[in-house]
Amino acid sequence: MPGRVYSELAEIALDQYGYVTTVDAREIGVNPQRLVEMAARGTAERVFHGIYRLPVVGEGGLDQLMLATLWPRGLGVLSHETALDVHDLCDVNPAKVHVSVPMSYRLTREVPSVYQMHRRRLDPEEVTRHEGIPIVTAPRAILDGIEAHLRPGLIDQAVGAARRRGLLDAVDLERIATAR
Q1: 81 and 167: one domain?
Q2: What is the Cα–Cα distance from 94 to 74, expressed in whole angstroms?
Q3: Residue 157: which domain range?
Q4: N or C: which end of the chain has fewer CB within 10 A?
Q5: Using alpha carbons only, how large is the chain's radius of gyration in Å?
């Protein structure tokens, strides 16, 4: 039977596709060293510095997206091409996982080659969740795509899909038209 610490960490990991961070541990009053000890015993797997995976859920297709949002100290939000893809707005095929972090975030370690980091101040209404994973809203993803010079045909496709699904209002359409 797992102990109290494992159970508390597992509760967090259940909501994060099996991942738990040293920040999560600190927030519940657990010394992060306990995660290191759990990895040494084989009850957790060290994935990145400060990120561990507990075998409380099976691996799935969205795990890597959750991991991308946790890597920058849990401050990441899926954005740009990745958000357009996850929202299924256009036929974009991102080569990297695009993650936006706050302007104040300091990178003190090398970014894994599979991630493309962006610094942006996101208003709370520009962030939503997709199956528990932080992601920018459809309008913000389209604006990010325009800013990143995504092909106009893909932007048109994204706008059309978002309009059909009721994800854009008049203000959003005005902002998109201005950005273009």
Answers
A1: yes
A2: 22
A3: 63-179
A4: N
A5: 18
Question: Of 81, 86, 173, which Cα lies nearest the Cα of 118?
Answer: 81
The one-letter amino acid at 101? V
Is 79 found in the same domain as 166? yes
Phi-psi region of 108 (alpha: psi -120 to 50; beta: other; left: phi over 0): alpha
Distance between CA atoms of residues 6 and 44, nearest Å: 10
**pLDDT tens across 63-102, in order?**
899 999 999 988 899 999 999 999 999 999 999 999 999 9
Closest by CA position to 156, among listed 98, 94, 88, 89: 89
Provide the H-helix boundaries in 22-149: 22-27, 33-41, 63-70, 80-86, 138-147
Residues 97, 171: Cα–Cα separation, whole Å: 28
Q: How far is CA 61 from CA 17, 26, 101, 146, in A?
A: 10, 28, 23, 27
Which of the four pLDDT bands, split at 50, 70 and 90, describes residue 1? very low
The pLDDT value given to residue 13: 93
User: Is residue 69 located within the same domain as residue 92?
Assistant: yes
pTM of this prediction exceeds 0.90: no
In whole angstroms, give the CA distance from residue 54 to residue 20. 7
